[in-house]
């Protein structure tokens, strides 16, 4: 069974034009580091990772500690500097590196976050709520005072996707036993005659068509949601993994902008959808005074492909001062659009049989509705799961890894699925448990409008720092209830005061 990435005969615009303007920040040179510290139990001679996007890069970083050599195969010719590329079309749109993802990157690449900041990436690390404009489920989060969290631990870094990925790639390339084989398509995976083990991969040079086979002790498929591993497994007689889908038909449009420093107090603006309005927007202040303006629509609400139309699209729900700043900003390029049909989760953790020598990673396991910004951080959590499994050897590795990775994936899926199914426009089963959870979440979000402690815990769960179960702690439930009851009492007293005033006026 051939496993390949398709070769289009139509050349895209590639990295030309505006999108590169956003991603032209220079990266501080990183001195070559010695080989990563080796685990005393070296598990094999060669590991191959398919795909050099964020998931593949993080998988390669972990594998470098357990295999003599690691090769990352990538179809694109990779740019030396931050630039959008064909293989990551979503890179032209707003991305969020959640605080948990940032923590893991700094653990895997010590000093990584400091390097981002030195090279121009903004960081929101003082807990000042006025720098954030968040609206979830129609509830505007508290916007004054300080966040009731550890500000440094919950620091939010706001690089563009090309800027972030380039930093990760450069750090990976300083590890002596890692090689990136760019400009190559994956033609097929190879296996033993009894089909019990994957033995490597055959690749094709996109410039000339020369083929070669890479023998491997372990192959990791990190080629995204379009990965062909399910078809390969079926061809070997293992069957396909069960897939879960939540169909949202999300379309988003983005444009890079330049604004004079100080134009906006906020560094991040994020307006989520609500029942009856499956649309939203984001505005992120990225590296070197560049901004990324994104609008999105779900279930058939497709945003326009030019800025005036995008602003009009957001007029119903966007903060007026933010839209005024967008209107006055200088465009750095054209509008880019991207479509995501559904959230998709492949349940490799449920498969009864799986060949040795093969793993699946990142979006190839689970890809989320992008409006929640979970993908890169979930990939980082999967990297920690992989490292933990490899520390216990390679026996029964696939089963152990898929089960370990299923835990952070399930937590993120629960949050995203709950948000999607809170919209009546999105089709999907809504058992009683989902309806109760969404009703409770609305109660939590109401409390987030005025209470810093509730908002802080919500942000920690949303940032994948804490598990969703923290929102069900008795002390937290009590605080949410107290804040909501206090709010209701204040509203009731206000209404009584209004009625008394009206009565006195009539007298």
Annotation keywords:
507 residues; alpha/beta; 5-stranded parallel β-sheet; 13 helices; disordered N terminus
Would you mind describing this structure in some detail?
The structure is a single chain. This protein has 507 residues and is an alpha/beta fold. The protein has helices spanning 18-22, 54-63, 99-108, 112-118, 161-173, 229-235, 307-314, 320-328, 375-390, 397-421, 432-448, 452-462, 474-506; strands at 44-50, 67-74, 123-124, 132-136, 139-140, 156-157, 178-182, 184-191, 198-205, 211-215, 218-221, 243-258, 268-271, 279-285, 290-297, 330-331, 336-346, 358-360, 366-367. Strands 4, 5, 12, 13, 14, 15, 16, 17 and 19 form a 9-stranded mixed sheet that branches. A 5-stranded parallel sheet has the order 7-2-1-11-18. A 3-stranded antiparallel sheet has the order 8-9-10, with no helix packed on it.
């Amino acid at each position: 069974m051939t496993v390949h990435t398709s070769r289009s005969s139509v050349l895209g615009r590639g990295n030309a034009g505006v999108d590169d303007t956003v991603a032209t920040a220079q990266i501080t040179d990183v001195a070559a580091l010695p080989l990563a510290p080796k685990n005393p139990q070296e598990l094999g001679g060669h590991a191959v990772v398919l795909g050099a996007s964020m998931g593949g890069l993080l998988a390669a970083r972990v594998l470098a500690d357990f295999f003599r050599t690691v090769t990352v195969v990538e179809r694109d010719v990779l740019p030396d500097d931050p630039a959008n590329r064909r293989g990551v079309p979503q890179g032209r749109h707003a991305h969020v590196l959640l605080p948990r993802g940032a923590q893991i990157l700094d653990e895997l690449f010590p000093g990584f976050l400091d390097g981002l900041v030195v090279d121009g990436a903004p960081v929101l690390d003082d807990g000042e709520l006025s720098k954030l404009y968040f609206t979830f489920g129609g509830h505007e989060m508290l916007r004054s005072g300080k966040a009731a969290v550890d500000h440094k631990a919950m620091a939010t870094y706001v690089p563009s996707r090309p800027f972030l990925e380039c930093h990760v790639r450069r750090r990976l390339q300083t590890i002596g036993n890692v090689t990136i084989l760019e400009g190559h398509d994956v033609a097929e995976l190879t296996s033993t005659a009894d089909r019990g083990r994957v033995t490597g991969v055959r690749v094709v040079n996109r410039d000339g068509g020369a083929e070669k086979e890479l023998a491997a002790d372990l192959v990791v498929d990190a080629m995204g949601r379009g990965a062909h591993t399910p078809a390969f497994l079926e061809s070997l007689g293992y069957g396909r993994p069960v897939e879960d889908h939540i169909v949202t038909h999300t379309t988003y449009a983005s444009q890079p902008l330049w604004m004079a420093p100080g134009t906006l107090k906020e560094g991040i603006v994020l307006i989520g959808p609500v029942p009856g309005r499956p649309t939203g927007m984001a505005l992120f202040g990225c590296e070197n005074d560049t901004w990324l303006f994104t609008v999105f629509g779900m279930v058939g609400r497709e945003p326009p492909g030019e800025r005036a139309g995008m602003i009009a699209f957001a007029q119903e729900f966007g903060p007026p001062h933010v839209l005024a700043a967008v209107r006055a900003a200088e465009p750095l390029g054209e509008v880019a659009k991207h479509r995501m049909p559904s959230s998709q989760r492949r349940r490799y953790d449920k498969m009864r049989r799986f060949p040795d020598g093969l793993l699946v990673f990142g979006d190839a396991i689970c890809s989320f509705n992008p409006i929640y910004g979970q993908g890169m951080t979930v990939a980082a959590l999967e990297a920690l799961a992989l490292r933990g499994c490899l520390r216990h050897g390679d026996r029964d590795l696939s089963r152990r890894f898929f089960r370990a990775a299923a835990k952070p994936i399930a937590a993120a899926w629960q949050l995203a699925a709950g948000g999607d199914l809170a919209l009546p426009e999105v089709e999907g089963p809504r058992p009683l448990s989902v309806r109760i959870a969404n009703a409770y979440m609305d109660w939590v979000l109401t409390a987030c409008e005025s209470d810093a402690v509730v908002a802080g815990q919500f942000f920690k769960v949303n940032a994948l720092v804490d598990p969703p179960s923290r929102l069900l702690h008795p002390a937290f439930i009590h605080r949410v209830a107290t804040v909501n009851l206090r709010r209701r009492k204040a509203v009731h007293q206000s209404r009584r005061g209004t009625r008394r005033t009206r009565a006195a006026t009539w007298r």
